[in-house]
Amino acid sequence: MWAWRTGDAQAVAAIVPWLAPLMEPLNRVQDPGPFAMTLGYLHLYIQDHRPIKALLPDWTIIAGALEREHYWFELACLACLLRRPVQETQRALKQFQTLRKAVGEELSELPKVLHQQVTSDWRWPIWVQQREAIERQLLLAETPPNLHEWVKAGMLPL
Fold first, then answer.
1. What distance in Å separates the CA atoms of residue 36 and residue 65, rounded to the nearest whole number?
2. What is the pTM of this model?
């Protein structure tokens, strides 16, 4: 992420020798998320700054690894930032928002004492509606992403 956000070519040069170990977990059952995110940020670096002296896996392989492990939010954000077809972002965002709602429904079934501790002073349905509106506004905008707005809204995935 640092290399992409700052355009730091030295940081990318330090990562390039590690590309093979970063790509290997993409096809494993082990959680490929951190590796896929690193490779996704390298795609962003190339898009926004300059080519690197290494061959990255195709975006579809990275996206497949994120999808397989349900990294829906991260997938939606990276698809948007990489200016992929909006349908890719919409699909991943919808999956993420559906999953979040399911978690909220599960929380509502907690024993009363725990439910009050987890959700006290937190109006879950209202918060979810507001958050979904922000996510749609930022991820599905017709204009290029404004990263300052994303950071302010807590939308830049790590």
1. 7
2. 0.85
> Alpha-carbon distance 12 to 36, whole Å?
16
How far is Cα 39 from Cα 129, in angstroms, rounded to an integer? 32
Task: Report the pLDDT averaged over residues 51-78.
Answer: 95
pLDDT at 12: 92
d(CA 79, CA 52): 20
- Compute the distance between CA of residue 95 and CA of residue 90 in angstroms, rounded to an integer: 9
Q: What is the pLDDT of residues 65-79, one digit of tens each?
A: 999 999 999 999 999
According to DSSP H, which parts of the chain are helical? 2-6, 9-15, 19-23, 33-48, 59-68, 72-81, 86-108, 112-119, 124-139, 147-152
